[in-house]
Specification:
The chain is built from nine helices and seven strands, in the order ββαβαβαβαααβαβαα. It is of the alpha/beta class and about 250 residues long.
């Protein structure tokens, strides 16, 4: 199955991988800026998000993305990924390091991370709301938890719509199917990497960014004082220049 996707612009390819709170629409504020900066931008919906349906068998998100690259004739690309999409990007960069030219991870999840009490409490509360049939309540919990103080009401509503749609698609599945998550061998990742965290996010994601920046071969960590978990939505005016400057720097150095 081909992931739902769209392509804009021309030049070096940048692939955008969404948070599992959202879908590919979360990158609406980044696409025009990246195209104007001279990039070909590919964004896709992972399985069970946006316009990509749930699968009926175990699936491999990293393989899905590289299959899409093959379909589009993309041999190499920079990966820009948020939260759960960041975990997918790490796996791609570890399994196919020659295909990744640069890596930008925004509040990335990491398979090797042991959740804090706060993150476990969030998961337990979300599960309880879903079990009780309160999908609206579970949606609001996500909007409240994952957006920082600079997100305006339009951004909160857009995030609300994306999260509610994901719940509707995933809960309508006949049976629950889990992704196949491979362990990312961080030592195999060669791409220059920027790890971005937000001071208003849960501590887990600040810790992950710091750990990854220490363990990856060519990486640095940037903490944004204004940001929560989804800085690309919260303040694209502040995030986009950081993103574009890093991509230009990484590709100029090659």
């Amino acid at each position: 199955m081909t992931l739902a996707h769209d392509v804009a612009g021309s030049g070096t390819t940048v692939i955008l991988l969404h948070s599992t709170v959202c879908d590919r629409r979360m990158w609406d504020p980044q696409v025009p800026a990246l195209v104007d900066a001279g990039y070909r931008v590919v964004r896709c919906d992972l399985r069970g998000f946006g316009e990509t349906p749930m699968p009926d068998r175990p699936y491999d998100n990293a393989q899905d993305v590289t299959d899409l690259m093959d379909l589009l004739g993309v041999q190499q690309a920079a990966l820009v990924a948020a939260s759960g999409g960041g975990q997918v990007a790490l796996e791609i960069a570890a399994r196919w390091p020659q295909r990744v030219t640069a890596l930008v991870l925004l509040a990335a999840a990491w398979a090797g991370h042991e959740p804090s009490a706060d993150l476990r409490a969030f998961g337990e509360r979300e599960d309880a709301l879903i079990e009780a049939g309160d999908i609206a309540g579970a949606t609001e919990l996500n909007v409240h938890t994952w957006l920082g103080p600079h997100a305006d009401e339009a951004t909160r509503e857009k995030t609300r719509q994306m999260q509610r749609h994901a719940f509707d698609v995933q809960l309508a599945a006949v049976e629950e199917v889990e992704p196949i998550n491979g362990e990312a061998d961080l030592a195999a990742i060669t791409a220059p990497s920027l790890l971005i965290s937000g001071r208003h996010d849960l501590a887990d994601f600040r810790w992950i960014a710091a750990q990854l920046s220490d363990q990856l071969a060519d990486a640095r960590h940037l903490e944004l004082a204004w940001a929560g978990h989804l800085p690309s939505l919260e303040r694209p005016d502040a995030l986009n220049p950081v993103l574009i400057d890093f991509l230009h720097e990484a590709h100029t150095a090659r």
